[in-house]
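Section 5.1 Outputs to date
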Amino acid sequence: MASRVLFFVFATVLFDMVGFGIVIPLLPFYVRSMGGSAEVLGLLLGTFALMQTVATPLLGRLSDRFGRRPIILASLFGNGVAMLVFAVAAEREWLLLLFLSRILAGATAGNLAACQAAVADVTSGPERAAGMGRIGAGIGLGLVIGPVLGSAISGLHPNAPPLAAAFLAFADLAGVYFLMPETREAVPDGAAGSPPHRSLRRVLTEVPILAVMAIYFLTFICMTNVQVSLALLADARLGWTATEAGHLFGLYGLMALLVQGGAIGKISRRFPAVNVLAGGTVAIGLGMAAIGAAHSPGLLVTGVALAGLGAGLTNPMLASLASQHAGAAQQGAILGLAQSAGSAARTVGPVWSGFLFTRLGAAAPFASGFAAAALSLAVAMLLRRRTLAVRSVTEDAVAAPS
């Protein structure tokens, strides 16, 4: 069953991310065509993330109670409808309708946490990190294909990219409905295995969970700078168009794909998860610094590649650590809350990034990203020291004579 679940989770995330990748790199140009600025773009992305922050933990809890498939199906349906609204906004150049589409998409964007919970249901140990890497590979491949596809069809008609994204969402919906098995049976209220509130609060006070959520937040602060300001920086400094910007996003996804498509399983078996996590934060920080300093194509491409590499290392490790400390009954809830920490960053991060770009220049958002990566590294090192201390105490207790 595990191999079948991993295959269909990969396919689900792949199609979802292709649709996401089709429209996200083009958003700055849609907003500009509707009379919006970089700050409006940041507000648009922040609105999506705010809705996702509120909805994702709830959807994760519901997936613990009712199963993973219903939540994934509902999320895909909502995303498809949101893309249809997006297409109308692009056709009519209605900025308010574009905001409505992102609000709806954010409110139903809970399928990633449910997919991660499905993987956690059927894996453990290094295999779980590899399974989370499989999800990351789907994300990376989708972010390779999506931006290139979006750039290729953007010249056909303004609503061609969102219509393509809607088609993929509904195709993904059909595939999940007919082919993906359920990994967790519905749990009635009060039944054994249901996630009580007190137990959830107790889990959320554990240092590893808090550390993971903090790094999720800081990592996505870095990544929102890429979403908001990368295309704008490339345009301002190099005169690059939507086509070249799409290729940059494709490179970012390719680097994440190369790590998560197979290497992350071997890496997680050889090195402790916290060490891999720390290495990923270093790569992200170097990428942010290189992008901010770039006045030539070579340095810009190098920075994007490093940021993608870092994301490929950190994301599956964060998901694996979160699920490891969640307990079997609360995979969806904890993974949803972890994703919500990232969504919170995507709420404030785009507004902050747009403000920095407009007020302080193209380098400012990526200087902010470098600072966030440095804080992530500090938290990862604290988590590493705590993990080593706990392991030492455990080994001493086992070695002590009875």
